[in-house]
Each structure stands twice: as structure tokens, then as C-alpha cells.
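Feature request, filed as a ticket because there's no other form

It would be nice if the structure record came with a short human-readable summary line next to the C-alpha cells. Right now we just get the raw output. Example of a typical job, pasted below so the devs can see what we mean:
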Amino acid sequence: MRVQDGRIYDVDGERFVDVPEELVVDRGDVDVVPHDLIATIDACSDAVASSVRAGRVPIVIGGEDSLFYPVVRGVHDAVEGSVAVIHFDAHFDLMDESVRQGRFSHSSGMRRSLELDRVDPSASIQVGVRHFNFPLSREFAVAEGLEQITARRFHELGAAAVAAHIQERVRAADHVVWSFDIDTVDPAHAPGAGAHEPGGLTTAQAIESVRLLAPRCDAFAVTEVNPMKDLGDMTSTLAAYLVFHFAIAAAAS
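Raw output as currently delivered:
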């Protein structure tokens, strides 16, 4: 990533940034237990919690979005005080349960996260949601005081204004976890997503959001990148840049 003598030039920020030797440390993969979803969730939560307790900021890269909940739970279990969740996603992920998906699927991550004792719905927010969803999910969000900024509203306000609003929203929380489902980004920019929802954020808006919000976050997860649907590694490359921008912005804060 063009690091020289322990620093890098941030072109967009027009600044030099020190890059510590251990800015990003790969702690390896979490064990996936194919026949036991709960064991896999526990393994992910434990890995995140141990990283937080070690003074690190976990950056988690995963497949489908059932990863969302164990990341939030891992931070929640490792810290004291209230936790806010920033959730960038095309979908609500507020399903309680279903016959086909159960209670811990990619459709339930936000719902399960809000059930944790110290996760504060009034300090949490969903961004980039669009098109159509279950009426019960919207009613649940309203009842819980969970704010939602649609992709349409994001385009009207711009990345800087939305980031400022999010900062104000999470201000009262002691800790912040950010889950970024890659389908937040329009499929024209990120075709390698688990679900295609037209009308999403651009890559520029996504990167600017990361640059502005990273310093406030205790953990960051990027999910739903599917290389089998990607074109020319467009989506994988975007995910890698989101991660590196997050690390640099957090380190420079």
C-alpha cells in the first residue's frame, strides 16, 4: 500500500500519516463449524472480544451477514458501558426468526444485536436501506427508537452531512461497532455482493464515510463480499480499500 519509512501520503486528505509497523495484524481465521452455527458464532465473538481486551480495534472480514451479530456481541462482552451500532446495509436485518432461516441468519443481525443488554437503540442507526421491507421490521425499528437513513436520503444530504449526523447520534454511547454490508454500495460499483439492490451508495461515498467515521469506532466489519459474483475483483478491491482507509483514519485520529 505504498508505505515508505513508516509513513504514507494520504492523497485525499492531503497529509502524511505515520503507519506503525503493527497497524494491521492478521490474527488468522476464526474456526467455522459447518454443522454448528452457534459454535461458529461463539468462536467469532470470542475472537473479537479477545482482540478488544488486548487493546486492538478488530477489523473483521466475512462472508454473509450472520457475522454481524457475533461481532457486536464480542465488543459488548469485552467492554463496560453502552454500545451503539452503526449499520450500513441495503436491508433492515430486523427479522426475529423464520422457518427457513432461524434466529441467527443474515436477516437477523441487527435484531439480535439490539437484544444485548448494553446496546442502545437510541444511539444506533441504519444507513443505506432502500426499496422494500417487512412492515413488522419497520414497526419494530420505530418502537425501539432505531433511526434509519435511506439511500435516497443519503444521496440528498451527502456523505459529510450524514457522517456528522451519525457522529451526533452515537455521541452518548461509550463504544461504537460498525457493520458495513457491501450491498450498501450500488451493484454498479460492487457487483460481487450477496444481494443486488440498485440505488445504493457510490464507492466515493462509501470511502468518505469510512474516513469520517473510523476514529469513533471500536470495531469494523465488512460483510457479504462474494468473489464468485464479482467482476474484475471490483468488489474485493473496494472492500480492501475500505479496510485500509479505516485503519489509516483510525490511526491518524
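Something like this underneath would help us a lot:
The chain has eight helices and eight strands.
The chain has one domain: 30-252.
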